[in-house]
What does this fold into?
Amino acid sequence: MGQLDGKVAFITGAARGQGRSHAITLAREGADIIAVDLCAQAESVPYAMATPDDLAETVKEVEALDRRIIASQADIRDLGALTEVVNRGVAELGRLDIVLANAGISSMAPTLEMEETAWDEMIEINLTGQWKTIKAAVPHIIEGGRGGSVVITSSLAAITTNENIAHYTAAKHGLIGLMRVLAKELAPHSIRVNTLHPTTVATPMILNEPTYKLFRPDLENPTYDDFAVAARTLNKLPIVAVEPSDISNAVLYLVSDSGRYITGITHVIDAGGQV
Amino acid sequence: MGMLDGKVALITGGSRGQGRAHAVTCAREGADVVIVDIADQMSTVPYKMARQEDLDETVKQVEALDRRILAVQGDVRDQGQLDAAVTQGIAEFGKIDILIANAGIWTQAPFWELTDEQWDEMIGVNLTGVWKSAKAVAPHMIERQSGSIVITSSTNGIEPGLNYAHYVAAKHGVIGLMKNIALELAPYGIRCNSINPGAIRTPMTDHQGAWDMFAGHPGGTEADLIEGGYHFTALAGTSFMDPQVIADTALYLNSDLAAKVTGVTIPVDAGHLILTGVNNTPVK
It folds into this structure.
């Protein structure tokens, strides 16, 4: 018996990284999945973003667990596209209980030198995109009348700050405000809303050369090992980065009955980074 | 398969209320349990504190789950008694993996009317007692390079509450203590976190003094407490909550699900902390 038997979850950014891990974890616990991912490159992003093959792999891994999954390429900046996917998913799977607003990008530049495109794409995806995700999906949870749970992926960057990611930091701070207002507005419907704040997670968004350079501005061509030295200093527990499954475990806690009276909170998973 | 198979958990204040919920939940998930409880009245506490029969009941419920349990009568203000409980627990079960520093009291008075004794008993149990409990298990956990500590704070670890400044000071204090323990034990792979319970219905919160507080006047009733509880939460249909909701979050924090979570504090308050404050009795 799974902790989420009979539930349906909508997950953005589900093609790989944390999103794929969430999809597999929730499916393992009995949930069916509605998954979206851009599966394309955003102009300002300096690392390779997910592909349709990545999304197909998520589908394969969820189906291997005998759960159903409706997966679509969709841009969370496009409210119409999100609404269409969620409506279709709910029509096929019968209900919606959980929303994981997980999709996100990273790029880096000193605040005063940042291109306008980089700022705009960041805010549109990492902040406005989460609002559109929730706007498209949560009415289905309300309609179900059974309550539900929304988890928004913020970041440790909304709690401790670092140079050269002002747009990312602003977006991730904004998500906390969005979460708190939603938690109030949705509490009468027994829908809970919380944010997650991961430290560095070992995903393609982090394990790439531009990010290594962000962590090691002192080196011309930093390697993973150079990055690891700096990343380790973020954490108090003796590790370089947490795994996507560590974040999925926190999601599971928040969306399952274990978290049934938890709403409006910011949950940090940071290997002790902020203490 | 349980989430805590093969583990041993030490729980202070384990004889009833949240402590018993922790003990039974740990046992249900496969852990053996050591409980420590004063099982006696303290002079400043106006409600009836736990007794030997409460300890016995927790023992019975844990044993019914086919787990082993050691129940020790002990005062968290006494380092010697805590150290002895730890030594006895390790002798019996071989190790201690988990500490849930749960023991606590709650008393009321305007801060300028609190007696020295009220202040000292509160700080002694709710703050210093947590430090002593963690101190009792830390060397053993460091030696094994493994462990998880969960400290029970309160929503009053984040916000004030009328007429119990000593409680608020202690509950704020344990959050600072939690962060420092997390910092100092992280190099050994040992985690420490805290929980901020909202309105939980236990013998500590369900008595005449609490009824009066929620009624807003002397002569309050149980119905006033329940009605006040609804006003204390945001989530639909939620008044005072069952201790199990806190045990569920401690289970998460002590299990592998939270293997990379340390130094954090989690409110379990049905949305209390997102409610906007209003002054119901303004002085104009």
In short: The longest strand of chain B covers residues 190-197. The domain at 8-205+240-272 of chain B is CATH 3.40.50.720 (Rossmann fold). Chain B has one domain: 8-205+240-272. Chain B has eight helices and seven strands.
